[in-house]
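All the exercises in this workshop are built on plain-text protein records. Sequence and backbone structure share a record, each on its own labelled line. The structure tokens are whole numbers drawn from a learned vocabulary of backbone shapes. The record below serves as our worked example for the rest of this section.
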Amino acid sequence: MFNWITKSLARTILIPVIASIVLGVVCFVYYVNTSSYEMSVTSEGRAAGNLTRIIASALDLFIEDTVASANVAAGDPDVIETLTAGSNAAQGLCVNFLKQ
């Protein structure tokens, strides 16, 4: 006789408990997903900024070295003669320089 009352009471208690547990798990998963995404984007943004600075620094060093090499070559009379008139000695110097 009281069987339907106990079943109904069990449903009345279990449904809100299960629903609140499921809702809590869904909220927790959403929070973790959102916060980990933001953390990953922030971390990758910092890494990209660091990589940009490193590349710019390496490019500056390359440009400085190239300018220094050009200045040294500009002061060498054989190089100047090769660029203006062209001599065998200067061509040999350029070939040796390019082989290095």
Remarks:
- The chain has a mean pLDDT of 82.
- The helical segments are 3-74, 77-84, 88-99.
